[in-house]
């Protein structure tokens, strides 16, 4: 659930009378504080995700690139394998990208 959705839900509860003014403010402060902690933990940016990318030692067929992408992105590794195969067959550069990632992405 996104932060805006949580705050909207809190506002609806407050409007319905389920939350007092003080409870609403406390809950909103908790939601905002937890979102700040989560953003600082993972950086919340693409560069933070790229810096956390590592090749997998356990989920691998060749170099562990797809397993590492699966952990970093939350998408299954078989989907990444399919993407690389499709890019190789259609555009011809999927294998090159895989090899470059195998070389430059560190292992876990």
UniProtKB/TrEMBL annotation:
Membrane topology: Single-pass membrane protein
Alphabetic keyword roster: Cell membrane, Membrane, Transmembrane, Transmembrane helix
Domain Phage shock protein PspC N-terminal residues, every copy: 52-108
InterPro entries, sorted: Phageshock_PspC_N (IPR007168), PspC (IPR052027), SHOCT (IPR018649)
One Pfam family in the UniProt entry: SHOCT
Membrane-spanning intervals of the chain: 61-80, 86-105
Major location (coarse): membrane
UniProt-annotated location(s): Cell membrane
Domain SHOCT, chain residue ranges per copy: 5-32
UniProt-recorded name of the protein: PspC domain-containing protein
């Amino acid at each position: 659930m996104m932060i805006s959705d949580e705050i909207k839900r809190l506002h609806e509860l407050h409007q319905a009378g389920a939350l007092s003014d003080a409870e609403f403010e406390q809950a909103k402060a908790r939601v905002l504080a937890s979102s700040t902690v989560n953003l600082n933990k993972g950086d919340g940016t693409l560069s933070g995700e790229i810096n956390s990318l590592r090749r997998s030692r356990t989920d691998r067929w060749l170099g562990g690139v797809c397993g590492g992408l699966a952990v970093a992105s939350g998408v299954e590794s078989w989907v990444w394998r399919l993407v690389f195969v499709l890019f190789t067959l259609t555009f011809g550069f999927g294998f090159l990208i895989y090899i470059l990632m195998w070389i430059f992405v560190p292992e876990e």
